[in-house]
Amino acid sequence: MAAWQQTPxxxxxxxxxxxQPGFYPDGSGYPKQPGYPxxxxxxxxxxxxxxxxxxxxxxxxxxxDPSMHSxxxxxxxxxxxxxxxxxxxxAFIRKVYSILMCQLAVTLAIGAxxxxxxxxRNYVKSHPGLWWVxxxxxxVTLLIMTCFDDARRKAPLNFIFLFLFTVAESFLVGCTVTxxxxxxxxxxxxxxxxxxxxxxxxxxxxxxxxxxxxxxxxVAVLILFVFSLLFMFIPRTNTTTLIxxxxxxxxxxxxxxxDTQLMIGGEHKYSISPEEYIFASLNLYIDxxxxxxxxxxxxxxxxx
Length: 304
Description:
The protein has 304 residues and is mostly helical. It has one domain (82-303). 60% of the residues lie in helices and 2% in strands. It contains nine helices and two strands, in the order ββααααααααα. A hairpin with a 2-residue loop joins strand 1 (5-7) and strand 2. Helix 6 runs parallel beside helix 8. It is globular and about 50 Å long.
């Protein structure tokens, strides 16, 4: 074993080095080994470290329902929603439109039966009390789904109430179309389909945020409802009916855009929760049915 000789700059071979554990040959000491630093959480942000990113971008606790959580915008993606949020929202939109198509199919089938089958048409005309029974039933089921969360969120209860409301509303539409001529009803169905398609495309691509107009639209439809009650007790002319129906069609056209953007979410200020797919389809269904009835009144008034 080589010996070490102490010199002004350290130890060299020639003399045994003194036993000094913990020192380099040049005399400098080893750094202290206090162990790993104590874990005190995230570094202080005042030292320039970026703030921690909350793990909410598509990651949820095990066993939890993703629909019960909110979906903030991802700051690392330029403010855009994460892939998980987009996939959940797209699945929600597909579910809403699937339910809506089933509702419209039921309404179209019942309406076509009432409009084309003469015995059914005559029976409904001779028993106007059926209209009031269906009207009360539709209002009751609508209030139940609006006021109670389980009635519109908990399956299969939500689908049962939605089916009952759809049948009652379809019966009301069927009773209404018996008053009009068949070609007028067909024209109203075609125009409503084209208008709804155009409004849906507009709602998806426009930069205007219609979700901010909820209060204005509520006041407008409330005034429309008051005037509809007045028209039940005062005589109406063809011109006043045409104006009233045109205003109603315009209001519910805006409602279709409004409810569509609530369903889309994304960059809009307000959006509906993905768990409210029954409520979203219910809103769009009511908007389309009301738009159809007002368009039907417009066509009938313009022909008379």
